[in-house]
Amino acid sequence: MIRDITIGQYYPAESPIHRLDARVKIVVTFLFIISLFVVNTFIGYVCVTAILGAVIKVSKVPLKFMLKGLKSIVIIILFTAVINLFLTQGEQVIWEFGFLHLTWEGIYMAVKMCVRLVLLIVGSSVLTLTTTPIQLTDGIEYILRPLKRIGVPAHEIAMMMTIALRFIPTLLDETDKIIKAQQARGADFDTGNLMQKAKSMIPILVPLFISAFRRAEELAMAMEARCYHGDEHRTRMNVMHMESRDYRAVVMTAVYLVFVVALRIAGNYLPFMI
């Protein structure tokens, strides 16, 4: 399960998506997430899924590798489904017990929310899997640069976000090693009630926190040894600039947004679109 988490990982490949400007990919991902809340019909979600599938195909990232990251959020998906199933108000009641009631409207909402959550995670993974941490840092900093006029530390925010993403795989690998070391010493993490399982996590969390603080201290010392002082007088080896493929991606995103809005409007007037 630990190795199934793909958040923060980069998948090297030669594809048009990998070659896009990081700023374009960040903005497109943000607009894609917004579009998931604009679509309100299953036909719309089918269309969005097909478009996302085409993007994944072009990115040359294996679909199996990308879907593997969904295993880590199964509990969140199930929790979302249960909440919407039994707490959504509706007229067509199927089953009722106390304050819990199952309605057709609840089933509809649960399926829609789960699909939306899966598309959100997979769509966001395309960004991190096709963009290196350095490109991601520079892209976020460029986007936040106008906010520096009002005192927002754009460079520091971008650096913190990228370091956090970069160290997720490292901490997951460290967690996996600690679990295997504890199991080799006879630790049991699978049996017992909920309280016993929670207590069994202490031998994992304590060394994990110690390791995380040690890595943070080593990183801080390495940055100080290299005279790192944030954005002050900092130059870049690779200056970001837009190319023709980036402008084509912007145009295609604009067409996609118009298409999504059209689906939303059509869904309000055509009942067969569900």
UniProtKB/TrEMBL annotation:
<keyword id="KW-0812">Transmembrane</keyword>
<dbReference type="GO" id="GO:0005886">
    <property type="term" value="C:plasma membrane"/>
</dbReference>
<feature type="transmembrane region" description="Helical">
    <location>
        <begin position="68"/>
        <end position="87"/>
    </location>
</feature>
<comment type="subunit">
    <text>Forms a stable energy-coupling factor (ECF) transporter complex composed of 2 membrane-embedded substrate-binding proteins (S component), 2 ATP-binding proteins (A component) and 2 transmembrane proteins (T component).</text>
</comment>
<feature type="transmembrane region" description="Helical">
    <location>
        <begin position="247"/>
        <end position="266"/>
    </location>
</feature>
<feature type="transmembrane region" description="Helical">
    <location>
        <begin position="26"/>
        <end position="56"/>
    </location>
</feature>
<keyword id="KW-0472">Membrane</keyword>
<dbReference type="InterPro" id="IPR051611">
    <property type="entry name" value="ECF_transporter_component"/>
</dbReference>
<keyword id="KW-1003">Cell membrane</keyword>
<dbReference type="Pfam" id="PF02361">
    <property type="entry name" value="CbiQ"/>
</dbReference>
<feature type="transmembrane region" description="Helical">
    <location>
        <begin position="107"/>
        <end position="129"/>
    </location>
</feature>
<comment type="function">
    <text>Transmembrane (T) component of an energy-coupling factor (ECF) ABC-transporter complex. Unlike classic ABC transporters this ECF transporter provides the energy necessary to transport a number of different substrates.</text>
</comment>
<dbReference type="InterPro" id="IPR003339">
    <property type="entry name" value="ABC/ECF_trnsptr_transmembrane"/>
</dbReference>
<dbReference type="InterPro" id="IPR024919">
    <property type="entry name" value="EcfT"/>
</dbReference>
<keyword id="KW-1133">Transmembrane helix</keyword>
<protein>
    <recommendedName>
        <fullName>Energy-coupling factor transporter transmembrane protein EcfT</fullName>
    </recommendedName>
</protein>
<keyword id="KW-0813">Transport</keyword>
<comment type="similarity">
    <text>Belongs to the energy-coupling factor EcfT family.</text>
</comment>
<dbReference type="GO" id="GO:0022857">
    <property type="term" value="F:transmembrane transporter activity"/>
</dbReference>
